[in-house]
């Protein structure tokens, strides 16, 4: 554990928002692409046929072990360092190498879907964090901005919070209504001849129609995630936290 992390032990833990984590992931992707293609380019430029395959194999091994090794040894990948983040085990130390491997495998399989319910957790955890009992926190509090992190969402421990089954039921109702609204809007586009019936019936769509369909779908997904976040924190009508006991942490990704 580095000194900057140790210095913040007496302060409330600062859990990274999704936006900061996305920056770290993007940096790591860029680094891996540059290193991978760079190594292959060098191997091909040398012109030795027997070199390309071993280099490719080593690249794959390096890419697989990069995150587990870095996270278990230092708490951060290079992307994490850039985004001022570190992965912390629930025991307040770096995760073990074995746990880091499991965490990496789960994240690789689920991809961005692992982050779907991040705003419904107390410590802004993705699914791969929860399954490995880890969190992603700010590495150096002195360099962090308020919009980079949240503190623990104590609202979930509030005895006045509606029961889970009720919150889940109301989330399903609102998501279904959002789907119905998006469907009505899409049918309105069809009626206005913005989207053709041929696109609906045969799937043969123009580029513009594909873009419209994609935007409609993304809008519904975005609204659904927003509703899940609101509903689980007791902010949807039908399963609301009582007035005077509103969540102490604003919506955070």
Short précis:
With 253 residues, the protein is mostly helical.
Can you characterise this structure?
The chain is mostly helical and 253 residues long. It folds into two domains: 3-152, no CATH class; 157-240. The protein has helices at residues 3-6, 18-46, 49-74, 78-83, 97-110, 127-131, 164-191, 197-202, 207-232; strands at residues 15-16, 85-89, 134-138, 149-150, 235-236, 239-240. It has a two-stranded antiparallel sheet. Strands 2-3 form a two-stranded antiparallel sheet. A hairpin with a 2-residue loop joins strand 5 and strand 6. Helix 2 (18-46) packs antiparallel against helix 3 and helix 7 packs antiparallel against helix 9 (207-232). The longest helix has 29 residues, at 18-46. The model is unreliable at 1-9 (pLDDT under 50).
